[in-house]
């Protein structure tokens, strides 16, 4: 689970920033509330990258147009109690016509409009040295309006006008019972209401079998209830133990689960720390899959047993290195008996950006992920900063026939190096280089694909081939001009600086009726300015 927190605005004075470059523009403002008893912050961005892409060949499919607006306000009710408000809305639009789809080697053309919105209010109370409490109420909404047709035949693929909404109440408390003992507990309740209006055209599945048209229509609602608790104890100044668990219930499918967790941290020396964690985690299936067939509501929730061991060491005042070894065993993943060799939850990666129409599913799928991650980080010192990360991993699944296969995300290795140099307060040079192994994909059955006029996967080689390895270098150069009450920053970004042709995917071109490749963005310079005031 990833938690993203917004920083607070400036409580002392108003500040602003404007950003303009060839892909879009944006602005940010922040300032105090009630003489410093609170603060506000708001930002907005809008892209016009789709217009630039019409003038410059970026070596990729038609880019979307997007924008977002965000805001946060914080008010202190007293030194110990605080209210916070947050709101976010973002929209994404993409509408290539058939000519653009043919020119851009796109499988489908049409339109896609999505809007995601979130709003919430939170209260935080401090209880002196005893601990704190947090209570939040939040609302989330995602609206879809999609219409896609196959580029070669013009046949309809999907019509989607759906809304997914949720309202969530969550309370979290932490009590400090002594210098070596603390307890955390809480509960949450969320009401999910998804209104699906999805129509799938009569088509063929990934393996070439004919599929009838289907309609998912209706409102599907349910409550997600949860409670959690954990105890953290330090029996020795160098040793910290944490044990806890979480109970969840989803009324839509009647599932109830309990997930225990345990972690430990041992500071071997002033510079070296050993850590370990183990736990059982559960997650409900996407509502869109459970809503397609009532029998899918009887499936068990997918679960994961995680074990992680790590060691970290300070290499100096500004550098730190860490190594983690992990193993994750997954059970009860959904499989489609009509396509038993395919991993259903990877469908959004290997075929569409959404789940297609499926009948009754089974929950016999298994998966396994294991690997090693190494991270070396250097904070700013002597005008240099940087981070180097490397990982080796395997991620596989067991299909409905009992065969273990690579998942589409099994790129095997990943190396990233990023950092920068600031010779003085006016100049900064930074860059990021990424290398990763080739992603698995399933080759096409050329004869069956040519006869059908669209891609048919070779059922004997599911995820049996790999794309070329990916690597790319991004560079950025900043020049700061300081004035009495403001700053102007001119910058130049260069994406894919040495213009390597990275293959995004292999596809069956339904216009030429032959296999082709889609490439990721080529070299892309971005010149822009930021004005701070």
Task: Walk me through the structure.
The chain is mostly beta strands and 533 residues long. The protein is 5% helix and 63% strand. It is globular, with a radius of gyration of 26 Å.
In short:
The chain has 533 residues and is mostly beta strands.
Largest sheet geometry: 22 strands, antiparallel, barrel
The radius of gyration is 26 Å
Number of helices: 5
Q: What proportion strand?
A: over 45%
Segments where pLDDT lies below 50 for 5+ residues?
Answer: none
Work out the number of β strands. Answer: 29
Q: Mean pLDDT score, rounded?
A: 92
Class by alpha and beta content:
mainly beta
Shape: globular
Ends distance: 36 Å
Summarize the amount of helix as a percent range.
under 10%
Subunit organisation of the chains: single chain
Key phrases:
two-stranded antiparallel sheet, 533 residues, 29 strands, 5 helices, mainly beta, 5% helix, 22-stranded antiparallel β-barrel
Lay out the secondary structure:
Blueprint: E1 15-21, E2 24-33, E3 38-47, H1 49-55, E4 65-78, E5 81-94, H2 98-103, E6 108-126, E7 131-150, E8 156-178, E9 181-200, E10 203-204, E11 210-211, E12 214-236, E13 239-250, E14 255-267, E15 272-282, H3 287-290, E16 303-314, E17 319-335, H4 347-350, E18 362-381, E19 384-398, E20 404-406, E21 413-421, E22 427-436, E23 440-441, H5 446-452, E24 465-466, E25 470-482, E26 487-495, E27 503-509, E28 514-519, E29 524-532
Antiparallel strand pairs: 1-2, 1-29, 2-3, 3-4, 4-5, 5-6, 6-7, 7-8, 8-9, 9-12, 10-11, 12-13, 13-14, 14-15, 15-16, 16-17, 17-18, 18-19, 19-20, 19-21, 21-22, 22-25, 23-24, 25-26, 26-29, 27-28
